[in-house]
Specification:
The chain has 657 residues and is mainly beta. It is 9% helix and 39% strand. The strands form nine sheets. Strands 19, 21, 22, 23, 24, 28, 29, 30, 31, 32, 33 and 34 form a twelve-stranded antiparallel β-sheet that branches.
Amino acid sequence: MKIINKTIVIIAVLLVNQFGFSQKDKMLNSDQAKKEAEYYKIVDVPIPNDIKLEVGGLALTDKNQLGVSTRRGEVWLVNNPYSKTPVFNRYAHGMHETLGLAYKDNGFYLAQRGELTRLEDKNNDGVADLYKTVYSWPLSGNYHEYSYGPKFDKNGDMILTLNVSWYKGGKSFAKWRGWLVKVTTEGEFTPLAAGLRSPAGFAINDNNDIFYTENQGDWVGSGRMSHLEKGDFAGHAESLKWTDEPNSPLKLKPEDIEKQSGLSMYDYAKKEKALKSAAIWFPHTILGISTSDILYDTTNGKFGPFKGQQFIGDQGHSKIMRVYMEKVNGVYQGAAFGFVEGFSSGVLRMIWGKDTNMFVGMTSRGWASTGKKAYGLQRLVWSGKTPFEIKTMKALDDGFEFEFTKPINKKLAEDLSNYKISTFTYKYHNTYGSPIVDQQKSMVHKAEISADGLKVKLTIHGMRLGFIHQIEMPKLKSASGELLLHNTGYYTLNQVPGGELKSPKMHMTKTSNKKIDQPKRVNTMPSSWGEHGADEKVVIGTIPGLKYDTEEITINRNSKIQLTLNNNDDMIHNVVITKPGKETPLKIGEMALNLGLDGPDLNYVPFSDLVLFHSGTVGPESNETIYFTSPSEPGEYWIVCTFPGHSFTMRTKLVVK
């Protein structure tokens, strides 16, 4: 083993410059990432070429070694993980998709697909010789049955979350799939809460309260974070099939939940008291697309000005978001902001190092991400400089109070035109995802600035309980002239202090469910094609990993084309046919990312001369057919999915002869 370690050190040293250069390139790809890097720098932990470190879990040992569990069923111990020459030692292997890791009592605990396992090195040779099953649960064999955790609560018990299966929608084929559960170190099992879909991240705060993050899907309109207590129902109806079990804390059944109520989650929770509405929404494609880990800032100011706040990973967008949370009338809620983007792969796990900087573990196999590497391990290091940011956003009964990290320019802060507010929500239904619905504009009526310039109280007309409140401050500057590093926040308003909302209603401002004419989307065969119809019929499908099922399609020029997208994936996709050019798919994808709240109404297709023809967004297990006449100019065109984040990998060459 010593010889192996020496070899790995040599390889790691050789890779340092290569990894540093690729990270520099990545950072330069985004103006926002360049700005963020002035305050928070992403640093590679070099990984030897012969290790596929698809990170599933991270934990520090008592000896300051970094434990890394992987999706390939291994656990690696990393010595000197803060240095440029870390040493990797394989501690354990042969397990099944380990998507969590914790360290306690001189050993590791981790969740495999079908069990909670303890690993221990009894003879102190650096390799686990004890693999102990603490508790096991049944599996159906479905690929989507991921298991996450554990994390220890204040009582020393372990909390885990179990993913649902996927077959034409989320299913709970095996017992307790879709549940939050507790297991003691002696193996005593307790189900706590149902209704989870894909609960990749969760955390326990100082009050022993449990929060988990959810990914968009059926019953889940957008990524969100919820506070869960024993007996709660988080929203996905499939897991309720196990409530007849004697140890179930709920009696609710799947058939008790309306599949298409037309209501938001907040409003449906008024009818079904067990349903726990989201504490924080992360607007889909705007803040992220695959919500992952939760990490509380416990550094007491050694990682910047966000003490006690939460950092939230996003696997699909390869970034970390920030959440300020408060408790109003006993209910958790708060605001989400951007924080740092530009990680090398999909962010799945985050922990604090002993130096109070952050380790970030990543993976993207099958779960494609904007970071192009298949896996990665990086550190997020605070430069010591404080960015100009919205530090906190607190709900009032008639507005919001904002605190900033630096004093603001009072003249700009008093100008009401420098604030833009709108409210919106999502549908709660069994359909995959949801469009943004019931979007309305609000109005800032008054701005009051504190004497020290650190706070602004905005009195607002048009606040609405149960809605996400988007606030934009693009022109606001600090007293020293800095623009906000992140100028938009998203507050999920479930309660107001005192319980009575005093913000006057806005009238005639509803802008949701817009019908936008998209002439390049033709899904009815033109009558001029006559009885003969299309000259050529093309079918394109999808495969896991954000890819179409073919890399190249050839058609004739000036031909009548009938193209069908069969989406047999578990995500939303579209097809957009673009003009030639190697960089065209990425340009179109970037335009789609910038559509913001208008994205769903536009099927994530920007108005651009680079777009020739396109479909709408097509949900899982669905299809759409479009009709167009192929270009008259021969060449290599592109078919690309412009659903945010997909254009990096999901494209097919369209050859016109």
